[in-house]
Amino acid sequence: MTTDNFIIRPMNRSEIDLAISWAAIEGWNPGRYDAQSFYQTDEGGFLLGELNGEPVGCISAVAYDQHFGFLGFYIVKPQFRGQGLGMKIWKTAMKHLGADRNIGLDGVVAQQDNYNKSGFQIAYNHIRYEGVGGGVVPAGIVELKTVPFEDLVAYDCQLFPSKRSLFLRHWIEQPESNAFGFLKNGYLVGYGVIRSAQTGFRIGPLFANDEQIAEALFQALLAQNPDFPVFLDVPDPNFQAIALVQRYQLQPVFQVARMYSKEIPNLPINRIFAVTSLELG
Question: Rounded to an integer, what distance in angstroms lies between the CA atom of residue 30 and that of residue 45?
């Protein structure tokens, strides 16, 4: 099959739903309403590969700011793999983000060697755990919308490589989602979000200053959707996070490697109990 008529172009908003459907087929279980949050973050950062007018591959290359970007949704439809189309999509994405940015991604096991050859180094693994929702909301939990938004952004900046105000504004207001915070002496010391996914619900992020705060938020998030499957992606160096999900009898079902193209950001992993998403970091 000739690939002469292969083009790569920015997606429009509706085409991100196509990328999410492909991600669902891959078994990644993206959120049902993630597309709007993703697109608002960098409207030029979602690329579609078309062969003879047919969409056959995609990637997201989201620039958060001039220093940091994130790759996700790197998919070529199975029947079009092995023809070099994915590499063309990859190179276009890397060009979009530029040589000066530090770029992050969450790489599936099968692709980690390829990412390594492209200069990415593994920082640690994210392990996806699955459990079942239920229980009650403990004392001390507040609706995140009652917390001043600038306080949320300031807290989030401590736990993510870039300020992501625009993303957060949409993320915490998704349909079929709940967002909670934990305050101590009037200061935000943890927050978490649970949102509807293709299967069940996804928790992300779950950020907290210590294990007790994380557990209270975790209980509140689990309580929102009794008897439904719940998933979260936990950084494996956070031993307290691993212990937390094991106490609640969640089971590991999936693993990816968090990788970076330049330096590994100096983030307090002991406060990251679940990453926000595998697609945008």
Answer: 18
